[in-house]
Task: structure prediction
Amino acid sequence: MTTSSPAPRHIAVVMDGNGRWAAKRGRPRSLGHKAGLKALRKIVEHCAKLGVAELTVFAFSSENWNRPKQEVSSLMDLFMRALDKETRQLHENGVKLRFIGELTVFNPELQQRIRNAEECTRENQRMTLNVAANYGGRWDITQAAQALARACEQGKMRAEDINEAVFAHHLMLAEEAEPDLFIRTGGEMRISNFLLWQAAYSEFYFSPELWPDFTPQCLDAAIADFALRERRFGRTGEQIQDQAR
Ligand code: IPE
Ligand code: IPE
Ligand code: MG
Result:
């Protein structure tokens, strides 16, 4: 007998496959990103309905700047246009919006809109949507190391005071529970520099669906699969089953 996992509290998603979705239709990649935004809207609503507390989505990686200029600028345009409109909708649905990543490189207007969106939804408690933009797991770990090194330089802490909990406190999503379920759509089976530290014990689920085709039913299938996993965290299956008895 295997014990089943309780519903995931925190789901992380690498929303991959927008470009291929558009290419299959002979359309520009930017159209795939628009379709991706639509898919995200539905998944957020569905998560809120299911009572998922936290959803963290990879929208733009620190490596995505290496794409053709035109694609990068169409993505920035899409972020700009989407922010105000989506924020209103999210706010009405009680969703708190947060951005994680190195945001200072975005143009000042986009940064302002991001701050406004976060401020507007700050008190919402139904669910949190974390959007990773210009995010990289290695960047996240590096910026935490810098913050700790600075604190040591300033005499506020000693190197011996740094342990895993202290380190995690300086990462993005510090106050959140780590992702229980880590989904990647689009068929690739890699992390692509998403939540490297935070996903240490996430359950991975790879879907062949391209992100614009990933429906709430696809999410239900991922959650059903998750429910069958036995999360052992280093212990034995017997220990886990004894605990469940
Ligand atoms: C993911 O879809 C969205 C972003 C990276 C912004 P892709 O644009 O990577 O789509 P594919 O993988 O090329 O199909
Ligand atoms: C990961 O997808 C980043 C996002 C979904 C935002 P990529 O398409 O950039 O990843 P690789 O290049 O295939 O690893
Ligand atoms: Mg991709």
